[in-house]
Amino acid sequence: MKIKEDSSTIWFRLIAYAVVITGSILCLLPFLLIVSASLTSNESILTEGYSIIPADFSWEGYRIIFQVPGEVLQAYGVTIFVTVTGTALGLLLMTMAGYVLQRKDFKYRNYFSFFIYFTTLFGGGLVPYYMLITNYLKFTDTMYALIWPSLMTPFLIILMRSFINSAVPDEVIESSKIDGANDFVIYYRIVLPLAVPGLATIGLFLALHYWNDWFSSALFISDVTKYQLQFYLYNIINTSAFLTNIGAGAGVTLSEGVPSESMKMAMAIVVTGPILLLYPFIQRYFVKGLTVGAVKG
Amino acid sequence: MTGTKKKAISLMLTAVMSLSLFTACSGGGNGGSGNSGNNGGSGTPANTPAAADAANEQAGIDTSKKVELQFYMLGNAPKDLPKIQEQINKMALEDLNATVKFNYTTWTDWDQKYKLLLSTGQAVDLIFTADWTQYQQYAKKGAFLALDDLLPKAAPELQAFVPQEMWDAVRIDGSIYTVPATYKEYVTGGFVWREDLREKYDLPVPVDIPTFEAYLEGIKQHEPKLQPLAIGAAVDAALQDSYLDIKRRAVGPMQYGVFASYDEPGEPVSYWGSPEHLEDLKTYKSWADKGYFSKNELNETESSQDKLVNGTAAAMLNDNPVRYNQTSSRMKSLHPDWELGYTPYGLTNGYATPVHPIHNGFAIPKSSRNAERALAFYEKLVTDKRYNLLTQYGALGVNYTVEDGYYKMLGDANSNGFPREGMNGWAWRNPEFMLFEPSYEGVQKIFDELDKIQKPDIYTGFAEDYTEYQAERAALEQVEKQYLFPLMAGQVADVEAGLKTFMDKARQAGLDKVQEAYKKQWLAYLTEKGIQ
């Protein structure tokens, strides 16, 4: 038997569909434009501009990239490695920090929380940060420079602390203690399973941060084989921008090939494509992780 | 433990998560805004005491300890750099008991990075300098090591190789801070236009502004689809400096609206707000009104050269002979029946200035721990043919061959791991070893012509010290962007009123103080160098 829907539900649905559809079109259009531009010959882009359907179909952009694919693949490898290790390590460290900071029997917890919180308000700025990484830690040109700085993000630690605080009642910790669990066992047998939704959120935050990061590469990496993907892309664009902007008086001539418009677009597809394809499959787990705590009352 | 509480938490988390998705892209901006804020403040390089002082006492250089030199160059590293570095290191280890690591800043935020390299005391042994990387200012602030005493000891051959007048020309406050490049070239401007179209419609050859305007008008009439003139977003350099160069014989791209002509450098005047300025702005406006350049020029991201090559524009102002030649051969490879013409401003003006020695050089930062070895290595790079060829053209037989005395690249620019001058070795070019592509003949011809009318560059040796008006300078830059750029791009309907607004805002920002100080420094510089 069908349940009759009243008209307000139907209207709500109609409006919701309309909003979602326009939203998706707005999101898809620029992307379609990139796909089409990557399949258009460079000359036709420059003379006639971009169009949704390629005016002059050509594989040229992709051909040039896959002629020497080594650098793109390497950059992919670096970004995947950094994202996976960074997220895993970061989660471990930040959940531990969050757990300790919320334990009521940790006398100096507010003190330490304040220290961590303080850095989000008052940063040293770029120069001290740069000096710390290059002169003291000597991370120049290593993967450490890419992973290390984001392992303990103050905002995420505080988020984790409040999450554990509200998701894990003190009584649970207390009773585990009575049952003979030590602090570390409580952490990974009791607290972590209860904090899964929080882990998912923070994990996503971190992973996105690592995936989108280019600034660390820009500052600390001069070895081409350690460029992150986003930096690799960004640098290509910057190189052509530099050539456009530098005055004739500088007398700079670069011998390297400057990418054409269609090649830039093809590069964007090559770089974002796999993630786009992967995302629908991973997304399931994120949603699952989020609702784990919500369903059970 | 209530269910609603849990629900509320997970709801909140979802909200935060979706928010994070939307803001993910702006996350990168954080770093960006953070560093731009630092731009002004971190300008003063740390004055680390010269570590080399102690070593200076001994005669000759001590190579008993093996060191690794950190070599910094701007731009992107060529793909084959590791192989080249390995070969260089083999030789350097034998000659100097040193290895070198070639680092490249890339073109992403290179100016920011350059500043950090010099101001944070990082171990950097050799770094590129040029007028456009603010060599003069950095040297004045003490970022580099003075080389006067070091040269005869660590690099006597190099000292003899570079002519004495070049050493003198790079002096800042009496000391040498950089090793100048000896290759003589011209990077002065000129008109670039489509010769095939000019012939087709029988238009005059652009040699000065009136003939150039006639050419633009002709193109506009006969080829309405073509944009007659490509300028680009940097209207200050690409339009105004260039225009002043050819129309008013400017001594150089002086700052803050100060103007001095090449013939009378000792009489700097305020150009901004003057009748001449108004007249020039009106000219630009008329060009914009007639459709010579796009209404959208300030937002242009494509380079003027690309527009010429692809046939969307028919002329540009201000390109140097080398770049013109490059554009021309790129155009020929795509459109064999098109042709590009070029008139250097020098031919019209009656004088041309070869590059100033400051233009390309290498300096040793104060923070270097191996100054002597660095200089000795740089000497090898310039004067030793093995080092020089390897770092300029790559490996012989792998990256290039020599045919009839000309350089020939193996493969193409995408597959070759080391194109010609792939390490951006502008500064250590050695004229005796240089190899050229056959197309260079065109450039050489222009250079030969300019050689006949050459005069020294007066402007580039000037080291401005803006510490006393740093705040006004920053404010002025803002005003210029906001009020003067639209005027230059012909976007303001009433030029006279627009100029007045700009001048009012500029005066409020402290124009008079800045100009006065700038003029004073300029005159002091002229006196010091004995130019009048």
Automatic annotation (TrEMBL), chain A:
One BP term from GO: transmembrane transport
Residue ranges of every copy of the ABC transmembrane type-1 domain listed in the record: 76-282
Segments passing through the bilayer: 12-35, 75-99, 111-131, 143-164, 185-211, 231-253, 265-282
Pfam families xrefs: BPD_transp_1
Protein name from the UniProt record: Carbohydrate ABC transporter permease
Subcellular localization: Cell membrane
Keyword Cell membrane included in the entry's annotation: yes
Gene Ontology cellular component list: plasma membrane
Record keywords: Cell membrane, Membrane, Transmembrane, Transmembrane helix, Transport
CDD domains cross-referenced by the UniProt entry: TM_PBP2
UniProt record similarity statement: Belongs to the binding-protein-dependent transport system permease family.
Membrane topology: Multi-pass membrane protein
Domain of life according to the entry: Bacteria
The keyword rRNA-binding appears for this protein: no
From TrEMBL, chain B:
Name used for this protein in its record: ABC transporter substrate-binding protein
Database matches in PROSITE patterns: PROKAR_LIPOPROTEIN
Domain of life from the UniProt record: Bacteria
Pfam families given in the database record: DUF3502 (PF12010), SBP_bac_1 (PF01547)
Entry keywords, A to Z: Signal
Signal peptide coordinates: 1-23
Compositional bias segments (type: Low complexity): 44-56
Annotated coiled-coil segments of the chain: none
SUPFAM superfamilies referenced in this protein's UniProt entry, alphabetically: Periplasmic binding protein-like II
Keyword Signal among record annotations: yes
Residue ranges annotated for the DUF3502 domain, each copy included: 459-526
